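Shipment paperwork, digital attachment
Item: protein structure file
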Amino acid sequence: MIFPCNNARVKASVNGFVNTNRIPHAIMIEGEDLAANLELALYIAAATVCEGDNKPCDTCHNCHLAGVGSHPDIARITPLGGKKNVSVDQVRELRAEAFVKPHQSACRVFIIEDASRMNP
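Attachment content:
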């Protein structure tokens, strides 16, 4: 399942840098609609790991795994145990994981949800 992106200008921008293989090392998504922010982040992640020609193609194995939320190279980091913030230990674990080579695609994607509430 491809994650819909309703903003045509944003979708064109994402498709432009993904299809030309000029993916930034970090992307910050800001906005009041947290669900839309996550939707865009998941769309970018699916496009990044896609093996097809028109990314995200929604037909390759990587797109399928991204769509069902089980791609081994896409990690979502959320506060644990009902806490308000992502913990320092979670960030340390992310840093360690970032040095591990991708399992299935050309790169790894880490999504830190609600990063604005992280401790300095």
